[in-house]
Amino acid sequence: MSAVFCAVDRVWFNFWFLQEVGLIKGSKVTRVNRMIRIPQVMVVDETGEQLGVLNTLEAISIAEERGLDLVEVAPTARPPVCKIMDYGRFKYEQAKKAKKAKAASHTVKVKTIQFRPKTDDHDYQFKKKHIITFLEQGNKVKIQMRFRGREITHMDLAMEFLSHLVGELEEYGTPESRPQREGRLITFVVAPNKAK
Q1: pTM passes above 0.85
Q2: Which is nearest to 75 in space by CA: 124, 104, 36?
Q3: Which domain holds residue 65?
Q4: 168: CB partners within 8 A, 6+ apart
Q5: pLDDT digits 0-9 by tens, 47-86
Q6: Are 122 and 153 found together in one domain?
Q7: Is residue 142 a contact partner of residue 159, using CB atoms and an 8 Å limit?
Q8: Which end of the chain has the smaller Cβ count within 10 Å, N or C?
């Protein structure tokens, strides 16, 4: 029974070790202190001053004396470049930068709003308000005019309706192209105006 538990513990330890070293899940792991296996490394201290090429154990002891960690910052260089720093703070700052970069990036989405030639005034105002909201958020809006049955014979009224809508949206966005007819639809995309 204990041999089975011992084998399970060994498998679990091997999995944990491979995960820490970065061989599982393709994760890039920064090697710190005793994880650095190369005999000699180029060492840079916490102030940015180069200490030169040192024995790895000697560099680790210098870092421990200062109450800091030896972190591998350029593993592909020969010899690898290691910096003496507070690794916990380094990880925190990197996570903070990643979060800030994610917040700053904005993907433009295309929202679709549909009208009909017989759209009444309340629905028109409601949909126009949504279009303005989408444009203010920086998204593009695809406007579709859908025809049913004999409504297609009144194309001139639909174009007048759409030109009126574009005129009201001028402050918030501009059409990317002229309205195009696709079967029983007239579509065009309105892009938000650039922020000044």
Answers
A1: no
A2: 36
A3: 29-91
A4: 128
A5: 888 988 999 899 999 999 999 999 998 888 888 899 999 9
A6: yes
A7: no
A8: C
